[in-house]
Recover the amino acids of this structure.
């Protein structure tokens, strides 16, 4: 398979105290045009999208209505549904890193005698959907509970009586089930002694500065979410659920629990996926476990709270989407170059497969075909230097920036060849590479400090 060359014009400018990277306006204008055209074509009510290009900044776009007569904005907070599962899996892997759990522990430790739940199921089988457990959200009782009072806040334990007989013996097949992550959230609570919500907040959201992501409804939102539009109540007609039924999000999202309660912005979502895939949330060993996949057909496979699709536009991509009543979220992260794309909508006329194939895949394809262009050598007043240039097997980093830094090296196709943590005045050992031009970047806490062309002999 021949990888298409990708390369991005990075427009970088210096402020008095720090540098901010931006994607070139010519490209952002076309991204907005694509978003507008595709959302209009597929009759999406409103949407927020974000694109993250490593060391090149984040583009944000909005389309359509948030509320009647009110335009959607790029900072709109909406339900991300089952994308919550990737957060939950990440927390579980962190607990394993800390020695608080082993993913091969059997769940009877926490759920002895629970009706229709085999105590020999492992935590790992919960996370990769091979437990065989019945999906509690498929029951008519679940729909009745949620619709009886839209503002009622459920506890995850309230959902346990809805678990029906298992569909298959644990480990013998694969089937997506929200019950797996309902139980995972309860295990997190029992292990830590803290609520699932507080553990996610302290483990991931605060650490990664995801300040526009919330565990709802246990956490208060700074502003109301855009109105949800849905076919779920009528069966066919897209309706404004607030106007038609006085709908509110509390009951459904609290009932979704660790399987789907998180709400966020598109920008925070791409930041999360970038942090996850670059080892900032879980260790490389844990990420390898997350990426232990089982083929589920149709070019897709599933790991621990993670989908892999291959090929998409000739690339392997990682993803997890989500569906709530009236909200859809889909994500795409390119394994070769780290491009992250997120879209969140306030209408569920589409499904996640179509959102991925009809909107994110065309945007991804466009990003892969951007013409080669130069990258400006920039440094802010903190004086970051990388030498020698040309380099051979080592590169020296000199700077007065204190604390942990991130060093990234990509080839001219955008493929990452090195991504590591460094400190001021480090000597960086380079992998064996073909001679040519590479892009070396240094950042701190996600903020770019320097981007330079390095010729490697």
């Amino acid at each position: 398979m021949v990888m298409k060359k990708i390369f991005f014009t990075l427009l970088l400018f210096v402020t008095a105290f720090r540098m901010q990277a931006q994607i070139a306006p010519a490209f952002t204008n076309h991204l907005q045009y694509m978003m507008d055209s595709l959302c209009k074509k597929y009759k999406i009510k409103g949407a927020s999208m974000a694109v993250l290009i490593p060391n090149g900044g984040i583009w944000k776009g909005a389309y359509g209505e948030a509320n009647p007569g009110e335009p959607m904005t790029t900072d709109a907070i909406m339900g991300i549904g089952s994308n919550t599962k990737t957060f939950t899996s990440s927390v579980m892997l962190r607990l394993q890193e800390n020695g608080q759990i082993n993913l091969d522990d059997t769940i009877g430790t926490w759920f002895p005698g629970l009706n229709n739940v085999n105590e020999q199921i492992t935590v790992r089988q919960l996370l990769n959907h091979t437990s065989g457990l019945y999906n509690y959200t498929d029951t008519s009782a679940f729909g009745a509970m949620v619709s009886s009072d839209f503002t009622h806040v459920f506890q995850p334990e309230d959902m346990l009586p809805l678990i029906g007989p298992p569909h298959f013996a644990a480990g013998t097949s694969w089937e997506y089930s929200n019950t797996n992550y309902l139980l995972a959230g309860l295990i997190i609570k029992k292990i830590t002694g803290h609520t699932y919500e507080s553990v996610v907040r302290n483990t991931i959201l605060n650490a990664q500065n995801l300040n526009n992501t919330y565990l709802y409804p246990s956490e208060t939102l700074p502003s109301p979410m855009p109105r949800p539009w849905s076919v779920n109540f009528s069966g066919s007609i897209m309706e404004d659920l607030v106007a038609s039924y006085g709908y509110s999000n509390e009951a459904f999202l609290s009932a979704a629990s660790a399987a789907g309660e998180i709400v966020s912005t598109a920008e925070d979502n791409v930041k999360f996926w970038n942090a996850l895939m670059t080892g900032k949330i879980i260790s490389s060993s844990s990420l390898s476990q997350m990426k232990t996949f089982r083929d589920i057909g149709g070019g897709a496979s599933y790991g621990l709270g993670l989908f892999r699709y291959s090929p998409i536009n000739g690339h392997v991509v990682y993803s997890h989407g989500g569906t709530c009543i009236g909200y859809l979220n889909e994500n795409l992260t390119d394994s070769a170059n780290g491009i992250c794309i997120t879209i969140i909508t306030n209408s569920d006329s589409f499904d996640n497969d179509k959102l991925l194939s009809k909107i994110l895949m065309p945007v991804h394809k466009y990003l892969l075909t951007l013409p080669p262009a130069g990258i400006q050598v920039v440094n802010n007043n903190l004086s970051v230097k990388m030498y020698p240039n040309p380099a051979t097997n080592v590169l020296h980093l000199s700077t007065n920036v204190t604390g942990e830094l991130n060093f990234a090296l990509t080839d001219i196709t955008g493929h990452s060849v090195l991504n590591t943590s460094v400190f001021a005045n480090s000597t960086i050992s380079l992998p064996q590479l073909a001679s040519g031009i590479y892009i070396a970047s240094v950042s701190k806490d996600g903020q770019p400090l320097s981007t330079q062309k390095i010729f490697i002999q």
Observations:
- Residues 78-368 form a domain with the Beta-lactamase fold (CATH 3.40.710.10).
